[in-house]
Specification:
By secondary structure, the chain is of the alpha+beta class. The chain has 20 helices and 34 strands. 50% of the residues are buried.
Length: 863
Amino acid sequence: MKILTPRKLNSMLALLSAVLMLSCSSSEEYIEPPTEPEPPTEIEGEEKTYPEAWHDKMRTRPYPQIDNELIINPSPLIVPMNMKISDSLQFELSQDPDFETSVTQSAMQAWCMYNPHRTLENGTWYWRYRQKSKEGKVSDWSRSYKFQVEGNADNFVTPAFAAIEKNIPTTHPRLYCFLNEVLPEAQDKVKSLVDYKAMINLANTEVDRDVDGMANPWANAGKTLKYTTLYLHTAYVMTKSERVASKDKTFAKQHANYKEKMLSVFRKLLSTPLPDSRLFASNFESTDIALCLIPIYDEFYEELTTTEREQVEKILMRLLRYYYPRQCTYEENHIFDNHFWQQNMRVLMQCAFLLCDKPAYRDEVLPIMEYYYELWTARAPSMGYNRDGGWQNGTKYFANNVETLYYVPKLFSHIAQSNFLLHPWFKKAGETIVYTWPPSSKSLGFGDGWEWYDTPQRQRVAYADFLARELGDAYAGWYAAQQPKSLRNDPELRLYRMANCQKNDYVSDFPDSHPKMMWLEDLGEVIAHSDVKNVDNDFAMSFRSSTFGSGSHTLADQNSFNVLYRGDYVYNSTGYYQNFSDKHNILSYRHSRAHNTILVDGIGQPFSTTGYGDITRAMGGDHIAYCLGDASHAYSGISNDDMWIDAFKAAGISQTPEFGFGATPLKKYRRHILMLYPDNIMLMYDELEATSPVRWDWLLHSQVAFDIDNDLKTLTTENATKGFVTQTRLFCNDAMTMSQTDEFFVNPKSGITAKYPKQWHFTANIANQAATRVLAIMQVADSKTALKQISSHGDTFRIGNWIIEAKMAASGKAYLKVTNTTLENVSFEYSELGNSTLNDTVNGTVRKQTQTDHVNIKTRAIK
């Protein structure tokens, strides 16, 4: 017997209720919108109130409302999927609460969002919606919702879809119409371009690929043939120059070979049956199949037979008819459907783009094209709730989104004649790419696959190159210039890069006034570098405490950190990403025990948006960088997400204390981190409180074994490859038991191998305490003899010229002060009044910065 989760049961009951209401309504009346859920609860802490969540995985209440600070002006208006109970919605927007004057009214539309496509003036705005059935019956207007425009949101206005519709090309090829003006010049000089050799080598390899021998070529779409098509199409387009061909017979022959091979692959595919079981085997497989067809259909449209065109068009329509009804209303309300945004949205939009002018499909496909356009405006890039230029779904997974993040805004910019790259996310992306993963360094990022690469992925480098060409971003230009080999090896953006060869001479000098610290406020990350330009001298730290919590490709790592020196890990998360949700992944990679954070009675954070953290303060200068993370709500119980409930069941795991899941009495977990330059010192001061005595497990992880001194409470590691030593000393007024192990909670599926070696896990255990405070002083040096001595007297500690005063007694207000005996204008204080004050020079100029807790933007409506 199948057991329904509470969420699935509620969804079925809501659907049943809607059906019953429809069957009982008279011909003169239409159903009212369903009753809204009760406002989410807020949890009172000792000093502040914590919302149950800052963001919903699936929206439950209309957005925006009065407690939602706007991220972009204009904000989209979004109705939850479960509140749309009829065929279409219509929106009204006004500054008049009675909707009698200056009312903007949308057309009836199938989706749950409305983009005003105009700047909204400061003041209070009101909006509402109503529903319409297929039979034409219209409901009453919903209650009105209000929100405030205060002038502090970034302005980003896109044209209405009419601007797109009138400019959609009606000839082929059109997929890369935004390159039409620059291609001829690039084609004539193609042999002199740095990508030429790599492009030709890849294409010539694909010419020799045996596709005729494939029993079912559709089965090879994702593994092989989409790349075959990509490599051949890029080379074919770039070798079109008749001037070059007239002087080089080999060049001309290669060009002809690319065309011949593409058409051969194309016809082999079309001659093979494509049942639904293959076309819809998975969402990625569906769009991989489309990627094998659409470039060839587009490029050789005029040369294909009518039958061939119709065959392709029928496949593309099968895809659109299957996926669009499933995506419409869902994607605008989901926090981030990663496969959709990585590839599927782009490819399905391309399918619609190629068909929306065809008389047989226009009426059906044009609204689909409009949906993808409006959806991108409302929820892209990076959820639409992120202006930081970083990737909320994990640093490694940014690379999986690069092609979409280049192609879609370029296409829409060209057709709408409005620059979609002016969104604040793109403006910040170059700097964020540099700080989260510098050249020749391992990643400072978080999320699935953080450990896969020793140096930046080629897609990151290619995207930096794109930003440098399009926006003149100096950070991005420097990043790309530092990694020319990676850039040359990138095939996904090669066509764009070669076509825009006239933009090769972009700015590549690193900005002189670059900061040492970067705060990604929307994402909830802080990155600090002592010398970001020079990896061999760089002491770097990354810290995550995110209001988005964990889920998808993010991990249960609130208030956790990574430390790198000379581009290699000092302290980092542990485990191996071999599978999205097997036993090792859940318990030794995703779970909080795998990260540099804490456990409470052995229990970690749930995989949920309710298990969130928050970076409430961050500021930096030339000698000190500081941040404060609050993970007081991160240990909030278990996940009620159906995806994770199913994953736990499949892995044979229960969300119980036995496996490190469950409720905790945690009340406060505030972590202060300071980086002290140029001495390569990091301080960490934790405030820990619970409503009853608990066991606190303070965690630290390393690639190498710790040398533990239980008397001095020091732990020392040595990196022989990079030539440095790290030492951390812990202070706490309560008894602390220190231990380490090289055993995982659950081993990786592959077992322990040379590729997947053991890692070291340190725990400082503080037992049976309702509250405690921990001070950690970390330092790196070239050798053990170069390590600075640490002295302590009561609540005063000294390392080198730095003096630290930290209140270690758990009773009373926390206090932390840092001064330097040789730096006159440099100090930090976290006062008993709750303020954080930094005195330091910033690019040589003395500044005083004072902060209290920053209130982050939430997209979940409370009131």
